[in-house]
Amino acid sequence: MKRLVILGGGESGVGTALLGKEKGYEVFVSDKGKIKEKYKEVLIHNEIEWEDEKHTESKILNADVVMKSPGIPEKVALVKQIRAQGIQVVSEIEFASKFTNATIVGITGSNGKTTTASLTHHILKQELDVGLAGNIGDSFAKQILEKDYKNYVLEISSFQLDDIVSFKPNIAVITNITPDHLDRYEYQFENYIASKFRIAMNQTKDDYLIYDADDEVITNWLAKHPVQSKMLPFSLTKPIENGAYLENETIKITIDNDQIIMPTANLALEGKHNVKNAMAASTVAHLLKIRKQTIRESLENFQGVEHRLESVLKINKVQYINDSKATNVNATYFALESMDAPTIWIVGGEDKGNNYEELYPFVNEKVKAIICLGVDNEKLLKNFSSMVDVIVETQYMSEAVKIAYKIAKAGDNVLLSPACASFDLFENYEDRGRQFKEAVRSL
Fold first, then answer.
1. In this predicted model, what pLDDT tens digit does every residue of 164-182 receive, in sequence order?
2. Higher local confidence (pLDDT), 350 or 93
3. What domain count does the chain have?
4. Residue 24 marked as a ligand binder
5. What's the pTM?
6. How far is C-alpha 346 from the geometric centre of its chain's CA atoms?
7. Where does the Mur ligase central domain start and stop, copy by copy (predicted)?
């Protein structure tokens, strides 16, 4: 009996444990932190051995295979020990994919992957049996165990790709690549780019890679590191023979001389970056033979993703917008770009080596006040204090929202778009977004 040790008792860890047990592995789950009650109950109910608030090496180093949670960095001593013993380390995506024959659409990128994955799933589910997993919703492993859909849309982070071995999506999507999580990649952008491109490393000529042809990081990398898969680029600026492009406010998608044309006027999501997300999702749908009419209708009625430029409330003609999912500078770039009114910007958190320069033009043009919400705001103050009249610091969401309320005039926007991770003051970006929404509702 093979021994499967799982590091991390969260959604992906517990899903893998259940699938592993069903497939005949001897399973042990170990978490250095506390395992949430709801997950403990599942483990106990399924008679899976577990421990939390510690790692017992003797029970871990005898594994045949280790599935580690994407949140655990390589530099942790225990991970180094596991590797030194030659034990295979895999991600949930790698482990689970061995137990399904489904068609897999894998979506990665620094930004837009949740929206693109949700939108792709929204279109496909109108006509196909399809699950949505990866970084989003119920774990991939658990869905394979309980439902095993014929198709999956997976939102995949670079951390999950770092531990794949033979995983390959039939259709891969790279939305864009901008510096993010560099703290996990020795502060080398090259390492992070290479990590994203692992999504295509096992692809063959029968698979597809959909990517942003306007993104120089991607096109430069592809020029030096060719892939096996068929390439379907998308672009807002130039005609594309095989792939998607924008012409006169119309999206044109061509695959093997079969073209779909869609007006962008009625897209549910606003902003240039969402035209790109729509192109990527529609290209996937076109490949999977979804009817043109279905694709059009789905793009028009898609509701968007929570914590991503989500309109919360209008109070005294001031619009409050929750973009808590903006955990890096590039995501905040899109948020500020789409603001069409004077904006009070709530920013800050755990900085991952951010360079704020690309935001300067927007801050000069659109931002009237900045509220820094982090444990350490020194970098923000240094970058922006000369650009705005008002810049204040706080460590409480409720206070940040009250300050914004006082400063705001009719017609203004109050935007939470932190450009940073949330772990210094919040549990995660969802917790940060919900606290913002609660604070706005209780104004």
1. 999 999 999 999 998 777 7
2. 93
3. 3
4. no
5. 0.84
6. 21
7. 107-285
